[in-house]
């Protein structure tokens, strides 16, 4: 193996066997500080610093700090190149101003760099914007702090439509400008490695090619409107567990290059990406924001990135190492930059030229994308026009997972056969969204219930609604038994569902509580990103003064009335100190330990219809993280056949209706991963009971990602909306009633069970911050296809209201190691529809283990009944190559390779063999 500065910075890992697959892990290690300084100097030389400025900085008289007259601000001349303008401006900046430019605050924006009026440097106003502009203190006329809530990134990727990504980005960027922002904190380019991830819905997919195809036009459109796109989260950031506690990604060079880098590479090469956000995690033992291997070797040296790097909130852990590695802006916290930069230069730990390198990258990008020359005037939003785009995106995203065919098709609904519809679901009355940074306060909202009711009533169909279960919040997603429903709980006074809750804003529980109110369930949740206003999508009110850094306490009191007689067990899940008492008997004592845990009670006999006193005491005194102070869920395991009153009422309504639509959801937020893939709040039982009451039942998933579906064999039709934005209800109704044919395809695999997921749940290793990416390049469907594991629904799967037939496969290779794949698609159904034919490669002709299927291209084809079209997809050399750690580069092996064409990775009607030259 040849030696180089890169290979010397690596340490070898162990051999991993995945079935018959051998993967050699290569893990980046912390580079020698001397090497880091030397390489940083080399990279600075590439920036072409201003005349006379070298690594020691030339001596000169002190500069005046008086305001530079506008006539003398030569850097404002648009006729000069961005590099020239940045050089001229840098010459006039004091060291304090350079440090200020490299240091960001928060509010009235997500992150905010104040302007430097003396030199005419505009403020950098950054917007949280993965699904629209997040409310962070700004206001606009007419809508205040509300913006268009777009479908989640995962929904956008489900369209498999790069042109739609451009339209999506156009809306978000226009609203960024209208809300006064000039930097967009997005799009997300994180690869979905496992389905428990709390942020899977805000990113694009588990496949690097699909992710690249959606994020690159997104970036191009953002920057065409003079707004800097900040792609995140760089890099190999794929879980929330331990993200603030030193989570360390141990990943091979090959996996980085084949799986996690490609979206950044494409955006840099094809859209000249302006900014990258370094992530929370460590990579090979070194934090991403001070990782010279990740920021230097990969990002700047290999990908030729010439923009600037912004940190995630609190992701910077040092001053000197972070600057030398190439993190240009510390965002939000001001813990290590600002005055510390000035002090580090004064102490000789950094040279002023180290700051100059960062400042030049920032200024050059600001000039190139037009921040100095553009007026970002706050102005009203075009609410209806932008809402229409949100609806169009969601219509193309909605994925029909299951449906019969011909006369057995449950969808589209036949309006002439229906007089009544029952809509059921605790969160069917809201447009569910991910909580945390992606959350947007919508300008208006059409819930699934609203959309179905509006369209059904236009057709003379009555719509009734029953929640069936309680709405979800962050605590609903904790482990343990299913949550005790409000339908069996009663407060100390009155007859409404729930318990009397006494809340204290501190943990000492002073004599009088701060707030007393009735809570539907014991689902205490205090976290900055899942409970605070403007960051929370749940209908469940958080405890008073809830934010991630305010610990409190609560007592819940009232009665519980079992629906059936028999043995019950209870559980408490979360973190903190808690006690459960029923009928005067203590059943669970959760005290004396730190960390996330679930405690279960012994069995207890309870009699149907008899109210028992219940009391739960809780103190949030063992935080999971600094911004995740407390959570507690009360669950139960009931005797077989037990049905709670709310589910029974919903099933009765369904029985009395011509059709039922059950809308189920989960809760997702950054900072927390899901404990399991089970629908919370007894929603699986709700679906089963409604299906038993009315076989003409449609199941609608309003979830961020995969869930287990034990009721699937009995469900006539299943529809996935993802988190569909503020127009989800309108789009859903249009699809259900056949006004729009479903077009979406799954951008990630839905496992048949959690045991089939190729990697363990992050919560399985919560005590260990080291996460070994043993799956290597076999992420998502690549693992399922290689090991032969059958998923519940495969990557790329999606049905519509017609049928397609494939034929006429032709494969042609050229002398540039490309394969031209040509085939026909014919609509053999009775109505128009959109097909998304996908091309997959088999294993490459090499002894190096490669996936049995890899997405190599696709097309979107709209066809009338009986229409045929020939489709051509070109597989380029990169798709036919693998990253060689020994050669430190891409290798294209010659030989025969299998090509598969079809409607998903698991349904390939056409197969052939091509020769790679």
TrEMBL record:
- Keyword presence, Ligase: no
- Which Gene3D superfamilies does the UniProt entry name for this protein? Galactose-binding domain-like, Glycoside hydrolase family 3 C-terminal domain, Glycoside hydrolase, family 3, N-terminal domain, Immunoglobulins
Which PROSITE patterns does the entry mention?
Answer: PA14 (PS51820)
The PA14 domain sits at: 494-650
Basic and acidic residues composition-biased segments: 34-46
- Keyword line: Hydrolase, Signal
Concerning its family, UniProt says:
Belongs to the glycosyl hydrolase 3 family.
Name recorded for this polypeptide:
Glycoside hydrolase family 3 C-terminal domain-containing protein
